[in-house]
Amino acid sequence: MRKILLGLLLAAGMASCKKFLEEKPTSTMTAENFYKTAADADAAVVGAYDELNNQSEVYYRGMYLLAELPTDNAECGQGVANAYIFALKNYTYGPVNDRIETLWTGIYKGIANANVAIDKIPGIAMDATKKARLIAEAKYIRALLYFDLVRLFGPVPLVLHQVTTLDSVSQPRAAQEAIYSQIISDLKEGEQNLDDVSSASGNGRATRAAASALLSKVYLTLHDYANARAEARLVLNNVQYGLLPTYADIFAPANRFNKEVIFGIQNKGNTGTGNGFAMALFLPRSTIPLAGGGTVGGNSADVPTVEFYNSFLTGDLRKDKTFFTQYDAGAGLATFRPHWFKYFDPAAITNLGEGSLNFPIVRYADILLTYAEAENELNGPSATALDALNQVRRRAYGKSITTPDASIDISGVSQAGLRDALLNERRWEFGFEDQRWFDLKRTGNLLTLLKAKGLGIQDYDTLYPIPQRERDVNKQLTQNGGYTQ
Q1: How many CA atoms lie within 13 Å of 168's alpha carbon, on the beta-carbon side?
Q2: What would the mean pLDDT of 143-160 be, rounded to a whole number?
Q3: Cα-atom radius of gyration of the chain, to the nearest Å?
Q4: What b/e readout covers 323-356, taking b as 16+ CB neighbours within 10 angstroms?
């Protein structure tokens, strides 16, 4: 980042030396003359959203490699050739790891784009309500990305404005308290200024409910259970959102915008532009025959563990949407070891970069379970905590969501028993949604559970190392404990 900025500054200096020989171009697009209209403001915010959809850097795969792969949910398949990815799974990674660096860089690119919008939009003459909403959207994106950073790395540089000088690149790590305070402030602004719901033309934009939902997860991570419960209740009382009757419908290509996904990363599949959900890495390699000859071009890189596959209880319908072990693409049934299935789009079977599914960041089911966890910590296994959990369970087993069912419902458990039940339920509900590592860490189970399952995790692996490349250019960055200093 420092090298890129240095090049830009040098270029600017060279241009200024020549300006007495040249007239100022009237058609050149620069930062100074671009942010002038409401359309420019909207474009700035779209640019912030765009980095979220950079799948190799952030969602889904950049995050998957740090939040799903190193857990008991996933393992390296035969398509993995990168030694740095094996190191993430085997807990042998260190400060030099291109996948950790890629995620760090991608997140800060998204933050930089958001900061440009936050800094530039206030100076644009436009409708005040729309201006406030666009700024709040950019702050929502910034809050989401800092929430990921602080959970993965602990203290990180807290960059809140557009970077314009070399001095502003080299910032020390801010205290976690300061980072969380900024996250909460940004999301509180969103609760005031974001739209109530996304319009048809604005599908995928952050809403007030998205701000409240993310706030509930932030407070839960901070063990501020009263505020976590209060924010979750705001979402649960919003009639615009709710559980879909069938789990599989959440991930149906024809239903990519639905009332359960409170905020998700948008993909534009089946358009021929290559901007869809990239499916190759999680589909079987050279296994499924195609009607026109050849096989589906999967790579079997990102695969679930067999233990996770086998952990689902009899009758749990989520299993057959989370994984698949056989498929007929028109040339006969093929069988294979369990692979991820949740984001599979059959319409893109011959062009795996054109999947049309969106990637959910926060779902209504997540907020039900967040509410249940917070309520259990405050009051034990109360009726409201159990009902929030059991709504998710009933849907999973094909039952009426609102009708108690003794064959499915959790009841008669202690506070500790409900903690265990919630952690298990989150695992089954959110497999391949990049939540497992965060759930294990938040609940204090990351080390004990993964050690018990034979993974090579060390006591210091509750935080990832600061990428060495970043420390080479920013001498103020310290390293997390346990890693090469």
Answers
A1: 10
A2: 98
A3: 23
A4: bbeebebeeeebebebbbbbbbbeebbebbbbbb
How does pLDDT run across 67-114, given as a tens digit for each residue? 999 999 999 999 999 999 999 999 999 999 999 999 999 999 999 999
Query: Is residue 485 exposed (0-12), middle (13-18) or buried (19+ Cβ within 10 Å)?
Result: exposed
What is the dihedral angle through the alpha carbons of 376, 381, 382, 385, rounded to the nearest 10 degrees? 60
Question: In this structure, are residues 124 and 37 in contact, taking their beta carbons and an 8 Å threshold?
Answer: yes
Domains (ranges, CATH) in the chain? 38-194 (1.25.40.390), 280-357 (no CATH), 369-452 (1.25.40.900)
Residue 8 burial (CB count, 10 A): 11
Q: Taking the model in full, what pTM does it have? A: 0.92
Measure the CA–CA gap between 188 and 194, rounded to whole angstroms: 10
Residue 35 phi, psi (nearest 5): -80, 75
Tokens representing 149 are 């950073």
What is the mean pLDDT of the segment spanning 364-388?
98
Query: In Å, how far are 53, 158, 206, 396, 474 from 175, measured between CA atoms?
Result: 28, 9, 27, 40, 17
Q: What angle separates helix 128-153 from helix 176-193, to the nearest 10 degrees?
A: 150
CA dihedral 33→36→38→39, nearest 10 degrees, is -20
DSSP structure class, residue 289: E
Task: Count CA atoms closer than 13 A to 239's CA, side-chain side.
Answer: 0
> Could you report the per-residue pLDDT of 298-338, keeping only the tens digit for each?
999 999 999 999 999 999 999 999 999 999 999 999 999 99
Q: How many CA atoms lie within 13 A of 240 on its CB side?
A: 15
In this structure, what are the phi and psi dihedrals at residue 335, rounded to the nearest 5 degrees? -120, 150
Cβ atoms within 10 Å, residue 481: 12
Q: And the tokens for 134?
A: 């666009």
Cα-flanking dihedrals φ and ψ of residue 275, to 5°?
-105, 20
CA count, 13 A, side-chain hemisphere, 3: 4
* Residue 52 burial (C-beta neighbours within 10 Å; 0-12, 13-18, 19+): buried
Nearest CA to 323 out of 332, 311, 331, 333 is that of 311
Residue with the two structure tokens 């976590």? 228
- Give the three-state DSSP class for 248: helix
- Mean pLDDT for all residues in the chain: 91
